[in-house]
Structures are given as structure tokens and as C-alpha cells.
Specification:
GO terms for molecular function: calcium ion binding. The protein is mainly alpha-helical. The protein has 2 domains: about 15-100, Orthogonal Bundle (Recoverin, domain 1), CATH 1.10.238.10; about 115-180, Recoverin, domain 1 (Orthogonal Bundle). The chain has 9 helices and 4 strands, in the order ααβααβααβααβα. The chain has helices at about 15-20, 25-40, 50-60, 65-75, 85-95, 100-115, 125-140, 145-155, 165-175; strands spanning about 45-50, 85, 120-125, 160-165. The strands form 2 sheets. The chain has a two-stranded antiparallel ribbon with strand order 1-2. Helix 4 runs antiparallel to helix 7. The two termini are about 20 Å apart.
Length: about 180
């Protein structure tokens, strides 16, 4: 949910927390990471949409429809290359997984991708990227990320360049559009 250069590598993610919010174990993720790094069957470390759906369905058979998987694939394909890195693949697995609430999964991804991990602040640029990805994933066409950021800041009455993660999450959880998707 951030620019490619600012996103941490998978090995830097909080894998214990990842295990708690999804239905896969930490060891399963590590095994997948090793396979991805060393197996040409994963597309030479660049997974296209067809391979993504095949691998996802092997991991969690029948959990999502093709349409849901497609939406997630394109929302997490940050550079619009038609291919996913392993981190992007895991982001899709997290958002599609039913092991926790949608808000818990979004919180996890925000925490992993946030370039300002200190003190749980979300900067304006990253906040707009998250709004954009939510819009893309949920097919929301009538919300502009910049305008949505301005609405969020107006509710806090604070700094226009950053908000706390908790303020951000409360905003999307109670937003008239986002709340229809986030339970």
C-alpha cells in the first residue's frame, strides 16, 4: 500500500502478527517465500494474474471468487506491470483471507507498508495511496483520495500532513462509503 521503494521486504514484516490475522501459519508463509525465491514455477519472482489465481487457489481453495481475486490482484499490482512481487502477493492473501476482520487486515497492511512506522502516524502521501488502493479494490469510483484525505483532516482538526493510524482507521470504519465494505 505504498510506493515500491518505501515498502519493506517480506522478511521485515511482523510474521507472528501475520499468522494471527490469517489462516496460514508463519511457517507456511516462510515456505512460500523460499519457494517463490527459488522456483521458476512461481514465474521467476514475478507472478502474473493466471499464476496468482492458481497459487492462491492451491493455498486456500475455493475461498474467493475469480472476480474478487482479480480486484485484489490489480489493487496490489503497485506499478501496474501485470506481475506481483512476493510482498504484493502476500498483501493480496492478507486482504482476501477470512481469518480476521477486514479492518484488522487493513490495519496490518498499513502497518507493514507505512514508510513512517514510528509512533503510528500516517502521512498525507501514504494516506492518499491507501485511499486509492481501497477505492480500486472495492470498485469505488466516486471518492477522490485527495478530497478524502481533506475530509479526514477536517475531522481531526490537527496537522494536515499526518494523522494517527487510529484516527485514519476510525475514519474509514465510519465513512459512509468505506464502512459498507469494512466490517
Amino acid at each position: 500500500m505504498g510506493s515500491r521503494t518505501s515498502r519493506p521486504r517480506f522478511v521485515e514484516w511482523d510474521l507472528d502478527r501475520l499468522e494471527k490475522i490469517t489462516t496460514l501459519s508463519k511457517q507456511q508463509y516462510l515456505d512460500l517465500y523460499y519457494q517463490y525465491q527459488n522456483d521458476e514455477a512461481w514465474g521467476g519472482q514475478n507472478m502474473d494474474e493466471k499464476l496468482f489465481f492458481q497459487k492462491y487457489d492451491q493455498m486456500l481453495p475455493g475461498e474467493q471468487t475469480k472476480a474478487e481475486s482479480d480486484r485484489a490482484f490489480y489493487a496490489f499490482d503497485y506499478n501496474k506491470s501485470g506481475k506481483l512481487s512476493f510482498e504484493e502477493f502476500v498483501g493480496v492473501v492478507v486482504i482476501l483471507n477470512n481469518g480476521s476482520t477486514t479492518l484488522d487486515r487493513i490495519t496490518y497492511l498499513i502497518d507493514q507498508y507505512n514508510p513512517t512506522k514510528t509512533n503510528y502516524q500516517i502521512g498525507k502521501d501514504f494516506g492518499k495511496v491507501v485511499f486509492d488502493r481501497l477505492n480500486q479494490y472495492y470498485g469505488i469510483n466516486n471518492l477522490d483520495p485527495s478530497s478524502t484525505w481533506s475530509q479526514l483532516v477536517a475531522t481531526t482538526g490537527e496537522n494536515t500532513d499526518q494523522v494517527s493510524r487510529d484516527q485514519y482507521l476510525a475514519f474509514i470504519a465510519h465513512h459512509p462509503v468505506y464502512s459498507t465494505y469494512i466490517q
